[in-house]
Amino acid sequence: MKKFVAFSAILSLFISCGKGDKGELVGVKGRKWHPEKPYGMTLIPGGAFIMGKADDDLANIQDAPTKTVTVRSFYMDETEITNSEYRQFVEWVKDSTIRTRLAILADEQGQKPGSGGGKGGSIGDFAFADVDPEKMTPYDKYMYENYYSVGTDDDIYAGRKLNKKIKLIKEPGKYPDEHYVEVMDSMYLPESESFNGLKTIDASKLKFKYNQVDLNKAVKKKGRKNFYEDAPPIEIYPDTTAWIKDFAYSYNEPMHNDYFWHQAYGDYPVVGVSWNQAKAFCAWRTMYKNAFIKKKKGRDQVNSFRLPTEAEWEYAARGGIEGGTYPWGGPYAKNDRGCFMANFKPNRGDYAADGALYTVEARSYEPNDYNLYNMAGNVSEWTESSYYAEAYEFVSTMNPHVADKKNQRKVVRGGSWKDVAYFLQVSTRDYEYADSARSYIGFRTVQDYMGTAATGTRPK
Prior knowledge:
Helix content is 24%, strand content 11%. By secondary structure, the chain is of the alpha+beta class. The radius of gyration is 27 Å and the shape is globular. Keywords: Lipoprotein. This is Gliding motility lipoprotein GldK.
């Protein structure tokens, strides 16, 4: 009885503290949501459109019959992801890989942070930041003792915190000790294998690992078991040899040598990136943004960046023009002044007729009515969807999408600098295998819009 009276007293205390709601059901009050347009993206208001071939299918492929579908609102990159933007990903992976290797070696040597003076005087200054549990918060200490200190079967250092407060030393003449030299030397190719004797990074060492979520699998299993799929590390450096492999009996060595890394091509679309690498970039971009937000109080994390579905891509490419052949409407690839509207292969192989030989800068030509550049031509673009010729016959009319992990044929859209005008049409479908990297395929990312207010075709 005494316990019941005590419980009642405590319960009365809690009830008396809720003065603001006056006993009414008012819901849980949280932070006010302020939608934030991601940098470099534009909002595509959701709506319905007729997906598929509006004109005769001249190639007679018959894989895009007309179908009215509806897509939800989303943000989309105004341009294809550029070399400069993808290099930010590569540099982040490179930096993290070097710091991890330095920290592991420091751990093996028994060195702790600050043992080199705290300014990069020895490899000890790059040791794991969590080597002293006594200086941790209770949460960090618990996580360290139960997870990070034991790692996983694949990686005994999984979860350990890197010390990113100290800048990496990149000039060989300033390396602090022989251990630092050992780590840095392991990141580069031997001089005998380097191009023109230049110090060249070993691209096989640049790998990014992330957990993938298979929601379809989780739904079928009716639970969260196996909710995450532990994907193997992915080599993220673009395949620059695509410029040579894609074209037999053709001299494209200058593009292989310079296109990705040289600043002259910084604002050009990245190519030589597989579907798997594009997915890894999306995962990194999400993590990179949320890591920044985590440091700020009072902000919710952003939705994941991802590749667009095939329907989203076509809806965005049309720019609100019903029945258009190209992003600018059409039916011609030239404007009223006789100038080509995109970068493609006109006139039986006269690649330069449109003002470009290979790719062009990502903001070239006129954008469509959604302010999206090069939705036709320049480079074809990966989408999230798997390719089936008969897909339009069975996909949903709301947010249609084929997510088949077993089907490695992934839809690419938009045509490229090496394609004829047919592939520039907003309704033309094409595909490539997920592990393939081509000199004419790039990508752009999207992010879901929170809410339903931004709808383009709703009644006024």
